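$ run holo --ligand "2-phosphoglycolic acid" --emit tokens
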Amino acid sequence: MSETPASPRAGKRRPLVVGNWKMNGSSASNEALLAALKAASFGDAEVSVCVPAVYLHDVADALHGGAVHWGAQDCSSHDSGAYTGEISAAMLAEFGCCHVIVGHSERRALHGESDRLVAEKAAAALKHGLVPIVCVGETLAEREAGQTEAVVGRQLGAAIELLDKRIDGVVIAYEPVWAIGTGKTASPAEAQAVHAFLRKTLAVAGAASASLRILYGGSVKADNAAQLFAEPDIDGGLIGGASLKAADFIAICRAAG
Ligand code: PGA
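-- output --
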């Protein structure tokens, strides 16, 4: 009896590329972008778009039945109640969301989100069947002060502490704050060093570190994606600006697949 040949990626983590639209889009511009994504193929890569929540109904309609998943950019740590303006993970699940970004540096900086709150949001997402994408990353001042590992270790540590074994259900995104929207990308070697540190931290905590996906984010473009994704501990990307243009985002997704 002949044996089934092993897939080329056997034993490896499936690459994941997530678009973070941030507060961008309009009903008219989303339609063309989503149609292009639905028609595209991405090789082995899993692809998802995290959109402003008000568009989730339209996005679910446009992407339904295709290969591209969708999600949101934040969720409440609470299940329901008197939290004006908040959106629960259960509500996101009702709209077919697969992923939700938690602890993006813009939310940490502009909305004062603490490491503990981010961990609680990740717990709420997991409880309702969503995959939280837990963002960590240092500022330029922290990097220059040699505190990168201390900062991302503290941010990841809060999630590990609260989630315990449930940490195996998350995706981590390393996004150096100084690289977000600035056009300054971490070099593949700089990013790889932090990813390896994060994976080691997960291993020491007893997590399934070999199968957990760690994405890189921060000025990923069509022309630097392949080099970043070639690093052994970089399992795909969280893409901001370049996820708003179909051709650029599709090229980045293909670089991962
Ligand atoms: P950028 O954003 O790709 O525009 O740098 C990445 C992010 O903030 O997730």
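-- notes --
The domain at 16-34+43-256 is CATH 3.20.20.70 (TIM Barrel).
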